[in-house]
Each structure stands twice: as structure tokens, then as C-alpha cells.
TrEMBL record:
Belongs to the mitochondrial carrier (TC 2.A.29) family. One of its GO terms (biological process) is transmembrane transport. It is a multi-pass membrane protein. Solcar repeats lie at residues 33-119, 129-230, 237-321. Keywords: Membrane, Repeat, Transmembrane, Transport. This is Graves disease carrier protein. It comes from Nelumbo nucifera (Sacred lotus). SUPFAM superfamilies: Mitochondrial carrier.
Length: 321
């Protein structure tokens, strides 16, 4: 690491002094470690992608939480309704928390994956170093990243859930809309939720998220390998074929674990839905949430908004095909 990197850095500094303008910014980026550059690039790309699909994400949250006026609407009608009564900015409510979560989540996942992998290999050598180790290490890293960034996900849901009654014509006999927002931003969500129930309140709904990590990763991995196994050998190295198999595996994994996502969303907004409104008791756990939703809202509610997830996968993979 010593002399070669040191001389390169000296050369860069010299060039930076001689040409201190836009060229200096490029040299500064060039001096960063590779993983930092990957995080910056990935964060920028992730922020762009999250913002591009933010309107669909907000509609999905409104469907999952059975928000009055939206749970029986289609995607297009819901978007039209939001646009009419909250304007363009209404389509992106809560997106800031989602964007803020990208870099820390990716960084934590990246840093802890190798740590978990080495720990498993060193402590359980009988497991070998095959794909199962990668699956376990990836799930553990994902769980760690979720725990550390979950309050931002909670804030995103609470901000997206509150629909503003900005016009009198919006009411139409519906009284769940607010003339003033319950929360005015991410900081206000953290402060209010902490005052309501302390640190644990910031993790309301984290159970279904953690439970779904391993099944989702396992199913996605298994389906991907099975699909790839049925692809002719001459096409197995094709990027298009790999992306297609990855997209189908992702769709399968999301469909199977999607009910857990619905339970999570409904648990996250329970403080905004008192138990005396609508008759649904507060969910004390994942299983109770699943059974209560089936009993009171019907099994179809467990898949409310799933079509939006399919649209997201299509839009994510189409540019590469």
C-alpha cells in the first residue's frame, strides 16, 4: 500500500495545485477508495430510482393501509386523486426519508456482509464456503442494515399515509383527511413517535420485516438457480438471460413475502388509527396481524398494492433488456 499509492497521491495533489478548478474535483473523487466511490455512485443511482417511482410507492402505502378513499381505487385513479388535491409535491410525500436511508443501508449491508461471512466460516467450518454461507451472511447483513435504518422507513410510511384535505371538495363525507399535517417532516416524526412510546415505538413493525428477510433471500436465490438450470448452456452467460431470471426470481420472492410487508405498514400507522376507529385491534405481533387482517379485511388485503411491486420490477429491469 505504501510507496506506489503515496507517489500517486503526491502527483494528484501537485496537479490539483497547478489546476485548481473543475479538474481538482475529479482528482478528489479519484483519490477516494473504490468502495466509497461505489457507495456514492450507488447512492446517487438509488436516489434517482427511488424518486422516479415515489408516486407509485405512495399509492402502494395508501392501499396497504386501507386509507379511506384509496383502498378501493386503482393505481391510476389514486395517482389522479392525489395529483388533483395535493399537487405534484403530494406524489413525493415521504420520499425524502426513503432517499436518506439509501446510503447508510447500503453501507451497513456492504460492511457487515464480509464480517458475518468470515464469522460463520471460522465458527462453523462444517458448513463449507458454498452459496448457503452467502445466503446466511447476506440475510444477517440485511437484518443489521434494517435495524439501523428502520426509523427512517417508519417516518417514510407515516408521512406518506397522511392525506391532506386541501380542498373542501375532497371531503365528500370522508372525515379521515387532515386540514393540517399530523407530522411536518422526518424530525417531527421522530420526536412525536419517541414521545409516544420511546425507542421501541420507532421500531413498530420491524418484526415482519426481519421475519421476511431470510425467506425472501432464500426463495429468490433458489428460484434464480432453478430457472438458470433450465436455460440452455450456450445462453447461461447471457446478461439478458441472467437479468430475466433475476427479475422472475424477485417477483416470486416478493409475492410470497408480500403479506408481511402489508402487516408491517399497518403496524407502522397504528398510532394514527385508534382502535375505536374501524374496530380493528392493535396488532401485538406478526401472526396476530396476519390473522386479524384476514378476519376483518379479507385475505385479498394481504396483497393490496402487489401489482405496483410488479410494475417496479418491470421498470427496473426493462432498461437492461
Amino acid at each position: 500500500m505504501g510507496s506506489s499509492q503515496g507517489s500517486a497521491l503526491s502527483t494528484n495533489v501537485a496537479e490539483f495545485v497547478e489546476k485548481p478548478s473543475a479538474r481538482g474535483e475529479v482528482l478528489f473523487v479519484d483519490c477516494l477508495p473504490t468502495y466509497v466511490k461505489e457507495l456514492i455512485a450507488g447512492g446517487a443511482a438509488g436516489a434517482f430510482a427511488k424518486t422516479a417511482i415515489a408516486p407509485l410507492e405512495r399509492v402502494k402505502i395508501l392501499m396497504q393501509t386501507r386509507t379511506e378513499g384509496f383502498h378501493s381505487q386503482g393505481v391510476f385513479q389514486s395517482l389522479k386523486r392525489l395529483l388533483k388535491h395535493e399537487g405534484i409535491l403530494g406524489l413525493y410525500k415521504g420520499n425524502g426519508a426513503s432517499v436518506l436511508r439509501i446510503v447508510p443501508y447500503a453501507a451497513l449491508h456492504f460492511m457487515t456482509y464480509e464480517q458475518y461471512r468470515c464469522w460463520i466460516i471460522n465458527n462453523y467450518p462444517s458448513l463449507g464456503t458454498g452459496p448457503s454461507i452467502d445466503l446466511l451472511a447476506g440475510s444477517a447483513a440485511g437484518g443489521t442494515a434494517v435495524l439501523c435504518t428502520y426509523p427512517l422507513d417508519l417516518a417514510r410510511t407515516k408521512l406518506a399515509y397522511q392525506v391532506m384535505d386541501t380542498k373542501a371538495s375532497f371531503r365528500n363525507g370522508i372525515h379521515s383527511y387532515h386540514a393540517q399535517p399530523v407530522y411536518n417532516g422526518i424530525k417531527d416524526v421522530f420526536r412525536s413517535v419517541y414521545m409516544e412510546g420511546g425507542i421501541l415505538a420507532l421500531y413498530r413493525g420491524v418484526g415482519p420485516t426481519l421475519i421476511g428477510i431470510l425467506p425472501y433471500a432464500g426463495l429468490k436465490f433458489y428460484v434464480y438457480e432453478e430457472l438458470k438450470r433450465h436455460v440452455p448452456e450456450e445462453h447461461q452467460k447471457s446478461i439478458i438471460m441472467r437479468l430475466s431470471c433475476g427479475a422472475l426470481a424477485g417477483l416470486f420472492g416478493q409475492t410470497f413475502t408480500y403479506p408481511l410487508d402489508v402487516v408491517r405498514r399497518q403496524m407502522q400507522i397504528q398510532s394514527l388509527q385508534p382502535s375505536n376507529q374501524g374496530g380493528d385491534p392493535r396488532y401485538r405481533g406478526t401472526f396476530q396481524g396476519l390473522t386479524t387482517i384476514i378476519r376483518n379485511q379479507g385475505w385479498r388485503q394481504l396483497f393490496a398494492g402487489l401489482s405496483i411491486n410488479y410494475l417496479k420490477v418491470i421498470t427496473e429491469y426493462t432498461p437492461f433488456l
